[in-house]
């Protein structure tokens, strides 16, 4: 099954990312993180430092990949709450890329983010700068999802040839599983054994296999969204317009129930409306990412569509591990990439994939 064209492909891709682009990339990736992918602040600092030290990173379009190119998909995997405190080491990704090259018998020529959301959408630029490699202007989700199975390559039926993981103290682990569902089990166990979070290099792609199996243009799109946010005098309406999103509620966080278990952050948050939304109450269910919005027993939005909680004043996204009682927030919802609305996409990342017995109703143009 081929991936459907992404809205990101309709806009011009950027040629390179330099240190001045990272605040916008971080802000945009946090928005696309839908609460997950890891908080962006520490990755933003690390990536800016890497670009100052090593120079800009070239962005490659999928159609620029040649016959000798091999792209490796990179990620951090585990509980975002742990990622705030346990930082990766400077050569952690480098050790995994070298192991991937040994296993494949060919050089890795570019990196790609598994998801454009959160720190996983920002960190690959820093890793690429340190390794002297370009980054593919694409990702595997067009947002963030919590499981290894929830990637465009799996929707497209592309098998994962190799998977290499590493922790902050230097351990490097390879997985040779029968399918990606088993990889998710073993990779999750590895992240738990690594203290709750680990890095991964997996899903080697060529120019031929990447076409139709990734979501294109998403690094450039995240930077454009971040620039729009940082330049806006009224950030929340600006983000709603930029994303063709709806503001589901503006209010105050009155309850945060959150726990870290099995390599995930799970729980729910409750938002009481303020101002024009006074008297309304919404609950958002989370598993690393924001999964479903409920009000008066009705589902207002659900995966695979995007749901992001932002600061009501600044418009900056708040990741699930940083949600706190009393925060003043707005909730944005907008349509996912068409890939996720295919039967296979919904099987992997629709409400039922997270245990919700509700039908998926597409969220369109700010409303259902």
Would you kindly provide a written description of the structure presented here, covering whatever features stand out?
This protein is of the alpha+beta class and 368 residues long. It folds into two domains: 7-220, CV3147-like fold; 235-354, Beta Barrel (CV3147-like). The protein is built from eleven helices and 16 strands. α1 packs antiparallel against α5. The longest helix is centred in the N-terminal third of the chain and has 14 residues, at 41-54.
Question: What can be said about this structure in brief?
Answer:
The chain has 368 residues and is α+β, with helices and mostly antiparallel strands. It has helices spanning 22-32, 41-54, 80-83, 92-104, 119-131, 152-155, 180-193, 207-210, 218-231, 235-243, 343-349; strands at 16-17, 57-60, 71-78, 110-113, 135-139, 163-166, 172-175, 197-205, 215-216, 246-261, 264-273, 281-287, 289-295, 298-302, 306-311, 328-334.
Write the layout of secondary structure elements.
Blueprint: E1 16-17, H1 22-32, H2 41-54, E2 57-60, E3 71-78, H3 80-83, H4 92-104, E4 110-113, H5 119-131, E5 135-139, H6 152-155, E6 163-166, E7 172-175, H7 180-193, E8 197-205, H8 207-210, E9 215-216, H9 218-231, H10 235-243, E10 246-261, E11 264-273, E12 281-287, E13 289-295, E14 298-302, E15 306-311, E16 328-334, H11 343-349
Parallel strand pairs: 2-5, 3-4, 4-5
Antiparallel strand pairs: 1-2, 3-8, 5-9, 6-7, 6-8, 10-11, 10-16, 11-12, 12-13, 13-14, 15-16
Helix pairs in contact: 1-2, 1-5, 1-9, 2-5, 9-10
């Amino acid at each position: 099954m081929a991936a459907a064209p992404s809205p990101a492909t309709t806009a011009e891709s950027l040629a390179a990312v330099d240190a001045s682009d990272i605040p916008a990339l971080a802000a945009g990736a946090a928005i696309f993180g839908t609460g997950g992918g890891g908080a962006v602040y520490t990755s933003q600092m690390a990536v800016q430092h890497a670009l100052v030290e090593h120079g800009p990173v070239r962005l490659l379009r999928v159609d620029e990949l040649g016959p000798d190119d091999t792209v490796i998909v990179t990620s951090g995997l585990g509980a975002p709450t742990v990622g705030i405190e346990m930082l990766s080491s400077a050569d952690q990704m480098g050790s995994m890329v070298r192991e991937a090259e040994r296993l494949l018998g060919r050089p890795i020529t570019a990196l790609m983010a598994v998801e454009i959301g959160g720190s996983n959408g920002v960190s690959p630029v820093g890793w690429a700068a340190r390794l002297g490699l370009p980054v593919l202007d694409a990702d595997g989700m067009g947002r963030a999802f919590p499981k290894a199975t929830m990637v465009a390559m799996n929707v497209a039926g592309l098998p994962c040839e190799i998977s290499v993981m590493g922790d902050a103290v230097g351990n490097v682990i390879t997985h040779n599983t029968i399918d990606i569902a088993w990889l998710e089990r073993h990779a999750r166990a590895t992240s738990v054994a690594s203290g709750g979070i680990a890095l991964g290099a997996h899903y080697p792609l060529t120019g031929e296999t990447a076409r139709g199996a990734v979501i294109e243009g998403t690094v450039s799109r995240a930077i454009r969204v971040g620039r729009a946010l940082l330049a806006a005098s009224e950030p929340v309406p600006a983000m709603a317009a930029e994303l063709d999103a709806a503001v589901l509620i503006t209010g105050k966080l009155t309850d945060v129930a959150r726990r870290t278990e099995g390599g995930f952050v799970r729980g729910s948050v409750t938002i009481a409306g303020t101002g024009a939304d006074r008297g309304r109450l919404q609950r958002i269910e989370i598993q690393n990412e924001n999964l479903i919005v409920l009000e008066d027993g009705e589902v207002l939005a659900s995966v695979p569509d995007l749901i992001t909680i932002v600061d009501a004043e600044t418009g900056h996204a708040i990741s699930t591990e940083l949600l706190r009682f009393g925060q003043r927030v707005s909730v944005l919802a907008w349509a996912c990439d068409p890939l996720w609305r295919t039967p296979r996409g919904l099987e992997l990342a629709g409400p039922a994939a997270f245990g919700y017995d509700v039908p998926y109703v597409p969220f369109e143009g700010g409303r259902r």
